[in-house]
Amino acid sequence: MTKRKTVQWVLWIFLIGLIAAFAAIYYAFNMPHRNLANEKSSYILSAKQLISDFRNDETIATQKYLNQAISVSGEIKGIRNLENHSIVFSLEDAMEGVSCTVDSADAVTYSSKLVQFKTGSKGSFKGRCSGMLMDIQIINCVPE
Amino acid sequence: MNKLIILLLLGLVFSNVGAQNRFFTKDARINFNSSTPVEDIIAESNQATTLIDLVKNEIAFSVLTTSFKFRRALMEEHFNENYMESAKFPKAKFSGKIVSSIDWTSEKSVIVDIKGVLTMHGVSNEILLKAHITPGKSKILASAEVKVAPESFGISIPSAVRDKIAKEVTIKIDAVYVPYQQ
Question: Is B20-179 in CATH node 2.40.10.10?
Fold first, then answer.
């Protein structure tokens, strides 16, 4: 009788372990994409500061900012509406400034706030830094 | 009167030189597709920057690897952390030359051969590709497709997942270039 109970316990523990393992795998496989709206910014700075950090030393700046949630603000110098309905706001310089991309879904969610952002006005965004090409790119942005 | 004509001519010459020799875009679309019976993996970025020099017939393309979006967040994580090592190699680049003849004034769609060097994951390989190019005065359309093997760029794929990732990944590029004003 006691032996049978022990076997039963072992089976139960095994089963629970199995379910937990499956749950963990299922979660990992279906884990949600990063939502920048729910993240606290690791860095809050002006677009000018960010540009100067990248111009000074791109490698160091990339190491520091890559994939970090950052809040950046500056004068809007250009707005581009892309074919996939995302919107790119260029801060401080249309060619070599900071490009903040708002994804199509967020462009709808935050539309009332985004319409206030015009060329020449001040814009503030929170997003994920993906590095620098001609400009410094901040993606998955939400307006602040 | 003569002076005026000279000035006008100079103006014409400079406006031609300054304006339309180079076209660019920062919103080129690049996607790749790894298709196997086990799994289809598709990723896309709309943040590729590319430049065409119409005089030298040169083309340059670069994209930040962390800007690729995947259907599953886990795939995105594996792509950046295990395969592309984006923290170490944040950019993928191509720089090449159009080797077949092209008439930039024709505004007719042509297929051209481009020869160049693709650098990603810190490894450079020479590649040849065909591109559709439609020249124009105010915009140039270009699209291309190329197949690359991850292994030839030093990207090692563990044997456990090897059959989930295609031996050759198809990269597609779509760009609408506009005149580059400096």
Answer: no
